Amino acid sequence: MVNTDFLDALASKAPTPGGGGAAAYAGALAAALTSMVGELTVGKKRYAEVEGQVRSELRELDVTRGRLVALIDADAAAFAPLAAAYGMPRETPEEQAAKDAALQAALVDACEVPLEIMRQCVLVAESCDFMARHGSVMAVSDAGAAAVLAKAALQAASLNVVINVGSMADAERAARYADEADMLLDAGCAQADAVFAYVMERLRG
């Protein structure tokens, strides 16, 4: 049942998929696990009052999961021109200028993609919170596990933003990217931690 193609590629010496793709994959896993909690909730008389909200969350999670899966390939696509730019010759002033221009252009997508991964992971963390508090009590531990995965994905993606803004010549753009990454990291990790603490407290009684 388990397709290990992505994991095999990740374990190889190929530069992609790498940390960004792994972050998106972990985020997609978090979204899928959160959806499972919702699917175990709908149709149950005990949760009739929140069924409409649960179904709405499930629709949003389906979209988010699809975006995160697409971002696995987007991350690899963003890395290709960055790697090519780093490999360009720089023996002459003209070559150095061409290399610098290519690098700066490639750094934009190399920051935009992990930032989008982070945005989607924050949405997953928010859904984890809802499902943990309102979903099936039989699956509350799964909501907690999903929150842990969402936080890990968020943190992993943030590392790609940080490393790439460090090479940006456009200080204003770099600061904007760094600020958004910090904001997303703070908000998403705080929510994921709150979900984990809530779930742990419920499990321990």
Q: Return the average pLDDT rounded to an integer.
A: 96
Q: How large a portion of the residues is in β-strands, by DSSP E?
A: under 5%
The CATH H-level superfamily is Formiminotetrahydrofolate cyclodeaminase monomer, up-and-down helical bundle
**What count of domains describes the coordinates?**
1
For the record, what CATH class applies? Answer: Mainly Alpha
- Listing every helix as H and every strand as E from the N terminus to the C terminus, the arrangement reads HHHHHH
Helix proportion range: over 70%
Our count of helices gives: 6
Structural class: mainly alpha
- Report the strand count: 0
Described by strand count, sense and barrel closure, the largest sheet is: none
Low-confidence stretches at least 5 residues in length (pLDDT < 50)? none
> What's the end-to-end separation, in Å?
35 Å
Pfam families: FTCD_C
Domain Cyclodeaminase/cyclohydrolase: 5-182
Organism: Adlercreutzia faecimuris
Protein name: Cyclodeaminase/cyclohydrolase family protein
Molecular structure report:
With 205 residues, the protein is mainly alpha-helical. The protein has a single domain (19-204), classed as Formiminotetrahydrofolate cyclodeaminase monomer, up-and-down helical bundle (Four Helix Bundle (Hemerythrin (Met), subunit A)). It is built from six helices and no strands. It has helices at 5-11, 19-39, 51-86, 93-134, 140-165, 171-204. Helix 4 packs parallel to helix 6. The longest helix has 42 residues, at 93-134. It is elongated, with a radius of gyration of 20 Å. The chain starts with a helix and ends with a helix. The mean pLDDT is 96. It holds the Pfam family FTCD_C. This is Cyclodeaminase/cyclohydrolase family protein. InterPro entries: Cyclodeamin/CycHdrlase, Formintransfe-cycloase-like_sf. Residues 5-182 form the Cyclodeaminase/cyclohydrolase domain. It comes from Adlercreutzia faecimuris.
